[in-house]
Amino acid sequence: MDHFQYKDGRLSAEDVPLSDIAEAVGTPFYCYSTATLERHYHAFAEAFRKIPVTICYAVKANPNISVVRTLADLGAGADVVSGGELKRALTAGVDPARIVFSGIGKTRDELAQALDARILQVNVESEPELEALSEVAVSKGTEVAVAVRVNPDIDAGTHEKITTGKRENKFGIEWTRAHEVYARAAKMPGIRIEGAAVHIGSQILDLTPFRTAYLRLRDLAAMLRADGHDIKRLDLGGGLGISYEGELAPSPSDYAAVVGDVFGGHDYDLVIEPGRAIAGNAGVLVSRVTYIKEGATRRFVILDAAMNDLMRPSLYGARHAIEPVVEPVTGEMAEDADMLEQIDLVDVVGPICETGDTFTRGVRMPPVAAGDLMVIRTAGAYGAAMASLYNSRSLVPEVMVRGNRFSVVRERIDTDDILTHESLPIWIEDS
């Protein structure tokens, strides 16, 4: 459930009509619902009420500090994958003792940031990283809590670009080498082994891969304890999928049941890292129709939003539900059969100079006209987070709603703003 519903014929974010926000900030823009963020966090907290876990929100899903702060105020920690995300989490007020740092390419500077912040743990993903972390810790005269991320060689059944637990993926250390790597880590100065971690992918709609991965992690942790390692904490990663166009997605309670079945009766501190499942349905992208174009074989609805604003359809072939902000009149979908193809079946596209700038193809849509507002749903995760300046387009504003109030939580960053960070080389300036 989300809090974007039609009220008096206009799609609203909680109690604020999206058309009112569009009038105030222009289009396109992202809009986030506080009530939905809170509801989704509470769904996880309630599901795990009898299975104590630390919920570390995956900041990469939506790193806006207002989103992160909203969740931190509810008790969420943070899963970060860069020094920038670490800084965002700290700026948003996340307790450092509830932050885990993942990612395969952490630099020494980023590792130093983590040590300085005294975060909960670093999830190490390679032996070279382990060596670098040891050197940084020694240089600072301290120790750092470490979990080794193991790659369990499990296919999560998701898109090839977001699966992370197969042996050919770049993530983690092959699980069959875990004993060797842990033995080496235990002898390294500055390293304090406290846990093990796994993460097998994103947008996972079948719970079976989770169960398989967690059984493997549980058995590995038991063997590592038998080897003499003090394994206190198991990081189970994230990846729980959500519904974009009516897909059947597992609930947090379904997911918690799997975790309980696997780890019930064990004394490990558990960490989970939901991101998309919290932020996805909590955000929409609002755009305005620029033109309706009659093509040779189809009708195009051209929006002022583009692939640089929402990359998922171009990058993953993802589909998002797209609806008009003004509620369609009942019966508008029922055109004459001989007009159906020309009127109802449309491609929704953006203005970027690439055919890939397409949000959806061949969808039935009520009649829309230039100037109409449209909403792209379930855009709260990996929307603004993945936006770019391609075609020298602006980075769109982000807006947060609570009840009947809204606030711009990131201003529009336009070409003038970007050009202040560019300059001519001295040989051109001097000519």
Write a structural description:
- This protein is α/β, with parallel strands linked by helices and 431 residues long.
- The protein folds into two domains: 4-31 and 280-419, Beta Barrel (Lyase, Ornithine Decarboxylase, Chain A, domain 1); 103-272, Alpha-Beta Barrel (TIM Barrel), CATH 3.20.20.
- The chain is 29% helix and 24% strand.
- The protein has 14 helices and 21 strands.
- The chain has helices at 18-25, 34-47, 65-72, 83-91, 108-117, 127-139, 178-186, 208-226, 252-263, 276-279, 312-316, 340-343, 415-419, 426-429; strands at 4-7, 10-13, 16-17, 29-33, 53-58, 77-80, 99-101, 121-124, 144-151, 173-174, 191-197, 233-235, 269-272, 283-294, 299-303, 322-324, 345-349, 358-364, 373-376, 398-402, 405-410.
- The strands form three sheets. Strands 4, 14, 15, 16, 17, 18, 19, 20 and 21 form a nine-stranded mixed β-sheet that branches.
- Helix 8 packs parallel to helix 9 (252-263).
- It is globular.
- The termini are far apart.
Helix content: 25-40%
CATH fold-type name of the largest domain? TIM Barrel
Specify the oligomeric state.
single chain
Number of helices: 14
By helix and strand content, what is the structural category?
Answer: alpha/beta
**Strand share of the residues?**
15-25%
Net shape: globular
For the record, what is the CATH homologous superfamily label of the largest domain?
A: Alanine racemase
Amino-to-carboxy terminus distance:
61 Å
User: How does the major sheet shape up?
Assistant: 9 strands, mixed
State the CATH architecture of the largest domain. Answer: Alpha-Beta Barrel
Please give the CATH class of the largest domain.
Alpha Beta
Structurally, the number of domains stands at 2
Number of separate strands: 21
Note poorly predicted spans.
158-171, 332-343
